[in-house]
Amino acid sequence: MALMITDECINCDVCEPECPNGAISQGPEIYVIDPSLCTECVGHYNEPQCQQVCPVDCIPLDPERKETQEELQQKYLRISATA
């Protein structure tokens, strides 16, 4: 699954620089995650780094974007091939 940022986001700016895929950016009101770039840090780390640094715990799995570990790995490989 890709991750998502909920309305509880306080725009603290700590998640964006932690994303190794550049999937997090400032949206109109709060930070947003591009699901096409989010691999939950598969290929980089054992755990999603944005979740680790978020002080308000507002980055859950996106129930609309279910992906297996294998699918996340394949997405990582596609992203890293074009980088």
UniProtKB/TrEMBL annotation:
Can the keyword Iron be found in this entry's annotation? yes
- Which keywords annotate this record? 4Fe-4S, Iron, Iron-sulfur, Metal-binding
Q: Which InterPro entries match?
A: 4Fe4S_Fe-S-bd (IPR017896), 4Fe4S_Fe_S_CS (IPR017900), PSI_iron-sulfur_center (IPR050157), YfhL-like (IPR047927)
Keyword Ribosomal protein listed: no
Domain called 4Fe-4S ferredoxin-type: residue spans: 1-29, 31-64
Which residues are in coiled coils?
none
> How is this protein named in the record?
YfhL family 4Fe-4S dicluster ferredoxin
Organism, scientific name: Chitinimonas lacunae
Upper lineage? Bacteria, Pseudomonadati, Pseudomonadota, Betaproteobacteria, Neisseriales
